[in-house]
Amino acid sequence: MARGTLRANTVHGKPMPSLIEPVTLRGTTFRNRIAVPPMCQYSAENGIAQPWHMVQYGRFAVGGAGLVIIEATAVSPEGRITHGDLGIWSDAHARALAPIAAFMKSQGAVPGIQLGHAGRKASMQRPWYGNDPLGAEDLARGDHPWEIVAPSAIPLDEGWLMPRALDEAGLARIRDAFIAGAVRARDAGFEVVEIHMAHGYLLASFLSPITNRRNDAYGGDAAGRQRLPLEIARGVREVWPADRPVFVRISSVDGAEGGLTLEDQIGFARALKAVGVDVVDCSSGGIAGSATAAKGPPRTYGFQVPYARAIREQAGIATMAVGLIVDPHQAQQVLDEGGADLIAIGRQALEDPNWPQHAAATLLGGPAYEAWPKQHGWWLNVRQGSLSKLGPWRAA
Q1: 338 — alpha (psi -120 to 50), left (phi > 0) or beta?
Q2: Are 134 and 42 in contact (CB under 8 A)?
Q3: Which residues, 6 or more positions from 104, have their beta carbon under 8 angstroms from its beta carbon?
Q4: Highest mean pLDDT among 14-18, 158-162, 308-312
Q5: Dihedral sign (CA 367, 373, 376, 378)
Q6: Using CA atoms, how far apart are residues 29 and 23, in angstroms rounded to an integer?
Q7: 295 in Cβ contact with 256 (< 8 Å)
Q8: C-alpha of 243 from chain center
Q9: SS (H, E, C) the chain
Q10: Dist. CA 199–CA 156, nearest whole Å
């Protein structure tokens, strides 16, 4: 990592692959450079974390990730995408999250949380119910719609809900809600906070000229459109401990005509660095499309890595690469070529929560069960002893 302190480890006389080497940012040490990024589960009750969330995030920590970031957590009730979104707008919400943070830390992962506000992409159905705005058919499930807000009164698409443009008092409430959410996250034991400024949600919609048509200090040119996001980033940094990193997730490009370009976002990354942000999490797209199925650039293996590399090189800030990074050698290549400082594996981790452990085995040339939690590693070592005497299984 550009500002991290690496521990010089070797394996069999060769340098430890950097993917699985510890790294320190500010005063926070990650056991490796593998992160599990936020992925909404739509399984909260009134914003309160449930047992599902303990299992969801605990298993990634047990599986060996260096950083696990809890899904987009709304800073206010109207900032949820769906009724199933997590929230952190009260102390009760934070109390429900604290045991999850503590368990992740006990298993060696740095506990992180993403703070967000859905903006005009709020008041939506859970994705398995259709990805549409809440309507009459959702009332039977108890899912009532609510008023949505945005920088300008521009709906997501034809026939979608019309958001209310935020006035000055509304802007202040949003800013204060993010800062209050960061304080609650801090006190709940999280060691990384990520501010969601991507995928067309509220802060992303302030940044984009497609969705921000304001004619006051919070619209117009890039400086105006960046004003609220930067005020929030600065405010979060001020209340977040000096030895804990602040991340920001951005859409590196809008991927829509007239939207933000990579050059625009490189400039924004420089501004984020200036207010104390440590890592830019480089995603893309989302200014168009549904709340949970955003449109953006074509998806190929590692399709967003070039964005992370460009922002890292030209803004001089550490970056996290995300998007169809599925193989340990692929991840290591991204690091070797200077493409990013951290590697985020999202849906790959859903399929294989032990991916970090398997990545270490792949890069080191064999299983290393000593690094697994002892409750698993002991049994797996016993099994390995038996397997080593048998050779590969073949059908009779």
Answers
A1: left
A2: no
A3: 57, 58, 60, 61, 68, 110, 111
A4: 308-312
A5: positive
A6: 6
A7: yes
A8: 20
A9: CCCCCCCCCEECCEECCHHHCCEEECCEEECCCEEECCCCCCCCECCECCHHHHHHHHHHHHCCCCEEEEEEEECCHHHCCCCCCEECCCHHHHHHHHHHHHHHHHCCCEEEEEEECCHHHCCECCHHHCCCECCHHHHHHCCCCCCCEECCCCCCCCCCCCCEECCHHHHHHHHHHHHHHHHHHHHCCCCEEEEEECCCCHHHHHHCCCCCCCCCCCCCCHHHHHHHHHHHHHHHHHHCCCCCCEEEEEECCCCCCCCCCHHHHHHHHHHHHHCCCCEEEEECCCCCECCCCECCCCCCCCCCHHHHHHHHHHHCCEEEEECCCCCHHHHHHHHHCCCCCEEECCHHHHHCCCHHHHHHHHHHCCCCHHHCCHHHHHHHHHHHHHHHHHCCCCCC
A10: 12
pLDDT digits (tens, 9 = 90+) for 327-377: 999 999 999 999 999 999 999 999 999 999 999 999 998 777 888 899 998
Our answer to whether residue 201 is catalytic in this structure is yes
From 42, 57, 201, 218, the catalytic residue: 201
Domains along the chain with CATH numbers = 31-365 (3.20.20.70)
* Torsion sign, CA atoms 145, 146, 150, 155: positive
Q: What is the spatial distance between Cα 21 and Cα 26, in angstroms, rounded to a whole number?
A: 17
Express each pLDDT in 237-289 by its tens digit: 999 999 999 999 999 999 999 999 999 999 999 999 999 999 999 999 999 86
Q: What would the two tokens of residue 253 be?
A: 């490009």
Six-digit token string for 308:
């992370």
State how far the alpha carbon of 201 is from the alpha carbons of 14, 362, 366, in Å: 45, 37, 43
Q: Which two tokens stand for residue 161?
A: 């809900």
Give me the amino acid identity at 355. Answer: W
